[in-house]
Write a structure and sequence with these properties.
306 residues; Rossmann fold; two-stranded parallel ribbon; 10 helices; globular; binds nicotinamide-adenine-dinucleotide
């Protein structure tokens, strides 16, 4: 299959490339490298450095004629979305609509979208949250992700919406404001101060990146449409994550608490039964294993002076 992957130079996108190549797909990547890394895209992959908002996007579709679009390019920080809602809406809504128009223009068969189960439900009415639960996002980021879900719903295109929990793993940026495991790991290895925002009892559903990749491949290769939560169904507090990473990195210093960040949900855990039944997918990687892999990645990066 020929897959056009947006955001392929990013954290999740780069893992998707590896798995898609392994499964014999042709890949075309579009990424503006705003947070992505060109080195994460192997030479055999066709790469276009372009903003998804660019009117010339359609020319890439005309030239490449992909079968599938797998859409991962985004402004992905809740905090940036609170500070700069226009930037968030411009990329995540207008850019995504530009992409959808281009996909329709050349008759793409299937559109897969990386949405956010951690934000579209807002503060959930019940835990774990299922796909049909109320959708009341608390941040512009959650709103922009949910808005594009609606564009897809009325698009007439076969589509799959994957609502990810908190994704973590190697290559996640510790320099952004999301990705608490990457942030703690890097700061601990560099013996820098560590801060927990809020009381640390806030819970998240942490899903390892290779499990997220497997969900994308299940949707693409089995051509399954629908909306699916992609998480573990298990809540873990930020305090617990802190302890696990501290243990794995042997960080000897205490942390401090600071005021909770605006726009963030207090507790979110995803009910992933539908993905299990329809996509035949279930998260496989245990938190301790995933943290060990992630910590090992950062250990090597730091040893190489990255
Ligand atoms: N990491 C998570 O926990 C998580 C959770 C839910 C959903 N998601 C979604 O998954 C997707 C990938 O997230 P990630 O964690 O890999 O983030 P990332 O920042 O590593 O990757 C995003 C990629 O998109 C590119 N990009 C950003 N704006 C662009 C634009 N206007 N045009 C073209 N390319 C652009 C960036 O350069 C980067 O390579 C995003 O859509 C994000 O919203 C991530």
């Amino acid at each position: 299959m020929k897959i056009l992957l947006t955001g392929g130079a990013g954290f999740i996108g780069s893992h998707l490339i590896e798995a898609m190549l392994r499964n014999g797909h042709d890949i075309v990547v579009i990424d503006d490298l705003s947070t992505g890394n060109r080195a994460y895209v192997p030479a055999e992959v066709v790469f276009y450095e372009m903003d998804i908002r660019d009117p010339k996007l359609v020319e890439i579709f005309e030239a490449e004629k992909p079968d599938v679009v797998c859409h991962h390019a985004a402004q992905m920080s809740v905090l940036i979305s609170v500070r700069e809602p226009l930037l968030d809406a411009s990329t995540n809504i207008l850019g995504s609509v530009n992409l959808l128009n281009a996909a329709k223009h050349v008759g793409v068969q299937h559109f897969v979208f990386a949405s956010s189960g951690g934000t579209v439900y807002g503060e959930p009415t019940r835990l774990p949250s299922a796909e049909n639960d109320p959708l009341l996002p608390l941040s512009p980021y959650g709103i922009s992700k949910l808005t594009f879900e609606h564009y897809l719903r009325i698009s007439g295109l076969r589509h799959t919406i994957l609502r990810y929990a908190n994704v973590y793993g190697p290559r996640q940026s510790p320099h952004g404001e999301a990705g608490v495991i990457a942030i703690f790991t890097e700061r601990m290895f560099k013996e820098q101060e560590t801060v927990i925002y809020g009381d640390g009892n806030q819970e998240r559903d942490f899903v390892y990146v290779t499990d997220v990749v497997a969900a994308n491949l299940a949707a693409i290769e089995q051509r399954i449409a629908g909306t699916f939560n992609i998480g573990t169904g298990i809540g873990t507090s930020v305090n617990r994550i802190y302890e696990l990473v501290r243990h794995a990195t042997h960080y000897p210093y205490p942390h401090r608490y600071a005021e909770a960040k605006k726009g963030e949900v207090y507790k979110i855990i995803l009910d992933c039964q539908r993905a299990h039944e329809i996509l035949h997918w279930r998260a496989q990687v245990k938190l301790e294993e995933g943290i060990a892999e992630t910590v090992e990645f950062f250990r090597q990066q730091i040893a190489w002076g990255a």
